[in-house]
From TrEMBL, chains A, B, C, D:
Role: This reaction introduces a second double bond into the aromatic ring system.
Cofactor comment text: Reduced FMN (FMNH(2)).
Species lineage: Bacteria, Bacillati, Cyanobacteriota, Cyanophyceae, Oscillatoriophycideae
UniProt name for this protein: Chorismate synthase
Database matches in PROSITE patterns: CHORISMATE_SYNTHASE_1 (PS00787), CHORISMATE_SYNTHASE_2 (PS00788), CHORISMATE_SYNTHASE_3 (PS00789)
Complex formation: Homotetramer.
Length: 367, 367, 367, 367
C-alpha cells in the first residue's frame, strides 16, 4: 500500500529492476498541459545508469513511452501512464543475492516482511523504481514553471567530507550539469570525481549531501498541522533509496543559534511585499511557504552494495561472507540529484493544487 | 485538509490556543483495548505548560475528557474523541500580535494563506495543538506495548551546544523524567537547565536535539516505496512545531563513512535470529524495520517568540519593531520529548496495523 | 477507519447515542466563510428527535457548539469542531438490548465485528451519529450557495405505497417544511401522516423513498472513473442508516426504455448553453455533472426497532423473543430528509473543491 | 484524481479506448498468492468485445501481460501491473464524434470539465477502461476464495421487461456462462437474446438489471459509519459505465413492507451460529456483513450510442443530428456481469484486509 504518493497530483509507481519494466501512473494531472515524451526523457537521462564513468555501468537507455493520458500533445486530465521497459537485465549476476543478504540493503527486510522477494537486481528496492518518480516529477516541474515560474535546482553539496560552497540565489541547472558529479563548483567537482573513482577502485562506496533550492515559490503552500510543507518534503526525500537525513533551512546547525540570531527579520520590499532579511527558515514558516527560497538538504549514505568482502548471513540464517558482484554505483549522489528535484516538484505541485482548492475558492468565483 | 494523520490508525486533531478547547478524534483504533483518561493524562502532564520553571508559565491543567469510543473502560472500535478545554486564556496578551508579525513565527504565512487568522495565542499554530497528538500517542503506545512490548524512549540529547552521552540500549523513561529538562544524563541536565534559565533572563531562546530510541520493534514494519518507515517517521517529526531536521540511524554523520564502515554486518544470534553487529541503519533497512532499535533525532530551532526587540512588519506591511509579550517557552525541548514519542508511536501503530493487513492474511487463516 | 468522508472537504464524525456527545470535525473548509452556530442549528432542528408527533419522543434539543475553526464569525481554514452534548439519555431503557439482538438492527454485527459494543441506545449505530453529518452539511450547503447559488431540496416522495407527485423544477424547501412529514404535496402529506400514526399505534414501522433535487449545479463536477459524481452520491446516501437503495435520474425504471427514448437530446439554449430536452440522466453524464438538475432517490427500509414481539437470539446464541422498549421512530423518512440533503451537499462541496484544483489551475493564473 | 479505488487493496486504472493500452496497478496485494496471467485472462475473456453475436463486433483479444509484482508465479507484495495493449483501433470511425456530442454519453461533460478530450472511441469514458477493474477483480476474487471460500456469482436478472427467476442460494457460474446473455435461466435467456438481436436490427439499444450474490462472506466486513459495506458496494457499482441504480437486499421494494414483515428473524443454527430466517437485509446489517448471502442489484440504462438518428449539438454549440457509426453493444448487460463481480470482489477484498487490521490485532498476537 506504499507505492502511491500525493493527495491531488497523485502518482502510483510500479516495476522492479528486472521484469517487464518500470513506470508510473499519474492521477489528477491538470488537463491541457503541453507535454511530450522528449521532455520527460530529458529528466530520465539525468537519472539513468551508465551516464558517466562514475555511475553504474548497467546499460539502460531508459526510453520512456506515454501509454495514456496525453492526446494531441496535451494532457487530457485522465491518468497518464509512462512506461520504461527493462532492457539490459542480467538476473544471473544476482543469483548469489537470492540467498545471501547484502548488509544494510533491503534484501533481508523484504524477506522478513513479505516472506519472499524478487531478488533479481534488487527487485522493487532497486533504484530503478525511481524512474517513475523522475518521469512524474518532470510533469510536476512543468506545471510549476507554467503556473508560477518555479525553479528547482538540486546539486551535490558534499561528497564524504568534500563540501562545495554554493550560492543558492544564483546557482543554475546549467552549472550543475556542467560536470558528471553534478556539483556546480568546478574545482570541488573535480575533487569529488577523483575521490569517487578512487573509492570505486577500492571496491568501496561513499555518500554525501544533496542540497536543493526552489525559487519563485508561491506564498501559502503547505497545510498545517500534519501536511506542513517541510513535513511532506521530508517524507518525499526520506522515501528515496539511501537517504538517512533531511534538513530545511538552518536544519541541525540552526540549533546552535539563539532565537535572536535565528529569527528572520521581516521587512517590506519596494513593491510592498513582506520579505525576510535572512532565510534560516528555509522558505517555510509554520508549515507554509513564505515566498523566500526553499532550501533543503538530504543525506545519502554510502551505497550498501560493495565489492569488498563483508560479514553476513544467508536467507536460512547461516553466517557467511559476501563480496557483491553485479553492477552498482560507488556513490549515488550524482544520480540522486534529479530524484531529489522530482520529489520536491511532486510535493510542491500537489500542494499548489491543494492550496488552490481550499484557499482560492471564493476569489475565483468573484472574478 | 492537513489535520489528519495515518492510514489505518487515523487521527484528526482540532482546536486552537484560545477558544473552546483542543483535542483529537481517533478513527480505526482496535476494539477491546483497556484505556482510561488517567493513562492519557499521564502523557499530557509531561507536555503541559507550567510544569517547571523552565517552561512557559501559562497555567493549564490540560485535563482531558473522553467523549466517545470507550465503553466500560475499553475501546469499542468506533471513533475515540478526547477533548481538553482551554482554561487560562488571555487573549489581551496577544492583541499586539493581531497586527504585528512575530519573525519566524506562523503569523505572516497563516495570513498569506488563509487571508485571516485566529491571532489569540497563536491560534492553530500554537503548540497547544499537539495535545491531540500526545493524547492519541498515549493510546498508540499502549497498543504497541500490548502487542509487542514496544518501548519508546525520547530524551533531550542536546541543548544548543551542550550534548549528553546517552546509551540507547539502556536509557529509561525513569532516567529521562528524573529532571525537568528531560535529559537522562544528570550532570548534563543541570548544565542545560542553567543555560535555559540564563537565556530566559536574557529574553532570548535556544534550541537543540531530541533523540528517540524504540526497542522491541517488530520486524517488517514500513511500506516501500513511499511509505517507508523512515519516510513516515520523518513526516511525523517534521510536522511538529519548530522542527528543522530529521535523521535516522547514522543520519548526516553517516555520510562521512565508507560503505565498508557504514554497512551493518549481519550475524545469526543464539536463537537463530538475524541481527546486525552495528546499527548505523537505525533499525530500518530498505524502508522496513529490521528488529534492531530504531534511533532517530529531531532538530528543534530556538523558539521564535522572544522578549527581545526585533525588526518586523505589521499586517499592513509597515516596518516596525516587536518585543513579544505573552507567555512562551525559552526552549521547547523539554516539552518536545513527549511530542516526539507520540509521533513515533502513531507512525509505528499505523504501520503495525498495515503490516498485519497485508502481510499476515494467509497465515492468520491457516491457524 | 470508516468515520471519515470526503477528499478535500473532509469530515470526521464521532460520538454515540449515550456518552459525552456527538459531533464532527471538518478539515479543509475554505477560509473566510461567514458561519454561525445558529445557521447550523437550523438544520439540526430539522433532524432532531421529538420535533413532531410522528417522530421518536426522545427529548433532545441537539444544541450545537462550535469549539474551533471559526473566529470573529468566519471560518479560519483550520479544523471546525462542532459538538452536540447528549442530554436526555436513558441507558436503563436499553438494558435488555445489551444481551438481546434486535432483528435487522446493528446489534449482532457490531458484536461480531468488534467483539463488544456500547449497547446504550444503539451506541455508534444510533441515528444520533448523523448529527455530525447534518452539521457539516449545513456548512457545505452554505459554500455551495455562496459559490454558485446551488439549491438542494429533499423531500419525502413515498411512504410505503403512498407516492406524491412532485415537480422537481419548482419544489421549494418552504413547501417541504410546511408539514411534519416533509412531503411537499399537502394532500399526500396528510395521508402519509395518518398512515404513520396508525402504524405507530400498531407498534410497527414503515419505510419509503426520499427524493432530492439539486438545482444550479456547476458543470464539470465528478471525477471518472471511480469518483463519478453518482458513485460518490450513492456512497454518501447508502451510508445513511436504514438505506437500501439508490437511484439517479431514471434509475431502475430507466431500464424499461429503449436508448432512443432514454437518451436526453441536446439543444443549444438562447444563451448558447448546451442543454438537454429531457433529464433521464439526472444531471450527470459519464460521471460528471452536465448542469441540469441532479435528481436522486433513496430507499429507506421500515425502522428495525419495533414494539411488536419478534423471534430473535441473545448474545450468547439462545433463541428468545423481543418486543423493543425504548424510544424510536415508526418511520425514519421525515428526519431522513435533512440527512440526505447533508450527504448530497458534502459530496458536491468536495467535488467542487476537487474540480477547482484540477481543472481550473491554468485559467486562474491567466486571469 | 478519480482513478484510484480502495483503501488497502488499492487499484489505479489507466488507459483509453485508443492509444497504448489499458490496465491497472494494484498496490497492497498480499504477498505469496499464486497467480498467473491465464487466470486473469479467463475473466477478461468474459468482458471482451466480440465474444458473441450480441456484443460489439470490435475485435480485441484483450490479451493481458503482467509487467510487475509477480515473481516465480506468486505475488511479491509490491505493485502488480497488468497491461492490455489496444489492437483493433479505428480512430477514423469516431471522427464525427470529435465534434458532435452523442446524447447521454460522456462526450459533452468531458469537454465541459477538461476543456478537451480524447474522442477516439470514447477515450477514457470507453468501457475498455473496465479491463483494469476486471483484471484486478480476478486477483481479489482469488484472495477471497483462498481465505474464506467466498463465491461471487453475477448474472443478468432482467433485460428490459424480461425478468428471470433465479435462486440465489444455488445459482452457479456454470449456469450463468451456459449462454451468451449470462442469464442462468435457459428459457428466459433465449428470449433475452432474441430481444437484443431485434433491438440491434432496429439500430436501438436496451438496458436491464444485473443481480449478484456472494456466498460464504465472513462476518464483520464493513466499517461504519461512512464505509459501510453497502455504501462501498454502491460506490463501486455506480462507478461502472451506464449504471443508474443500486439496491442491496430488499432494496426499493422493501419500502413497501412493514417492519414486522421486513425484519429478518434471528435463530441459532445447529452449530450455534446466529442466522436469519429471511434475508431482506441482503447480508448486511448496520453496514457490516452478517454472514448471510450478500445480494445486490444494479440497473444499467440502454446504451447511449445508437445507430438511430438523434437530435444533438456540435462542440461549438450548433444544433445537428447524429446517427452514430462505430462499433457498440446494443445491450451492455452480458458484458457488465464480470464488471459487477469485479467491483464486488474489490470492495470485499479491501474490507477483508481492513477488518483483519483493526479487529483481529490482539487475537493474532495471542496465538
Amino acid at each position: 500500500m506504499g507505492s502511491i504518493f500525493g493527495q491531488l497530483f497523485r502518482i502510483s509507481t510500479f516495476g522492479e529492476s528486472h521484469g517487464g519494466g518500470v513506470g508510473v501512473v499519474i492521477d489528477g494531472c491538470p488537463p491541457q498541459l503541453p507535454i511530450s515524451a522528449e521532455e520527460i526523457q530529458l529528466e530520465l537521462d539525468r537519472r539513468r545508469p551508465g551516464q558517466s564513468k562514475i555511475t553504474t555501468p548497467r546499460k539502460e537507455t531508459d526510453t520512456c513511452e506515454i501509454l495514456s493520458g496525453v492526446f494531441q500533445g496535451k494532457t487530457t486530465g485522465t491518468p497518464i501512464t509512462i512506461l520504461v521497459p527493462n532492457k539490459d537485465t542480467r538476473p544471473q549476476d544476482y543469483s548469489e543475492m537470492a540467498t545471501t543478504y547484502r548488509p544494510s540493503h533491503a534484501d533481508a527486510t523484504y524477506d522478513a516482511k513479505y516472506g519472499f522477494r524478487n531478488w533479481q537486481g534488487g527487485g522493487r528496492s532497486s533504484a530503478r523504481e525511481t524512474i517513475g518518480r523522475v518521469a512524474a516529477g518532470a510533469i510536476a516541474q512543468k506545471i510549476l514553471r507554467e503556473v508560477a515560474n518555479v525553479e528547482i535546482v538540486g546539486y551535490v553539496k558534499r561528497i564524504k567530507d568534500l563540501e562545495a560552497p554554493v550560492d543558492t540565489d544564483t546557482v543554475t541547472r546549467e552549472a550543475v550539469e556542467s560536470n558528471i558529479v553534478r556539483c556546480p563548483h568546478g574545482e570541488c567537482a573535480q575533487q569529488m570525481i577523483d575521490l569517487i573513482e578512487q573509492i570505486r577502485r577500492e571496491k568501496d562506496s561513499i555518500g554525501g549531501v544533496v542540497e536543493c533550492v526552489v525559487r519563485n515559490v508561491p506564498r501559502g503552500l503547505g497545510e498545517p498541522v500534519f501536511d506542513k510543507l517541510e513535513a511532506d518534503l521530508a517524507r518525499g526525500i526520506m522515501s528515496l533509496p539511501a537517504s538517512k537525513g533531511f534538513e530545511i533551512g538552518s536544519g541541525f546547525s540552526g540549533t546552535l543559534l539563539r532565537g535572536s540570531e535565528h529569527n528572520d527579520p521581516f521587512y517590506p520590499d519596494e513593491e510592498g511585499n513582506i520579505r525576510t532579511r535572512s532565510n534560516y527558515s528555509g522558505g517555510v514558516q509554520g508549515g507554509i511557504s513564505n515566498g523566500e527560497n526553499i532550501i533543503l538538504r538530504a543525506a545519502f549514505k554510502p551505497t550498501s552494495t560493495i565489492g569488498k568482502s563483508q560479514e553476513t548471513v544467508t536467507s536460512s540464517g547461516e553466517a557467511t561472507e559476501l563480496a557483491a558482484k553485479g553492477r552498482h554505483d560507488p556513490c549515488v549522489l550524482p544520480r540522486a540529484v534529479p530524484m531529489v528535484e522530482a520529489m520536491v516538484a511532486l510535493v510542491l505541485c500537489d500542494h499548489l493544487l491543494r492550496d488552490r482548492a481550499q484557499c482560492h475558492l471564493f476569489e475565483q468565483e468573484g472574478e
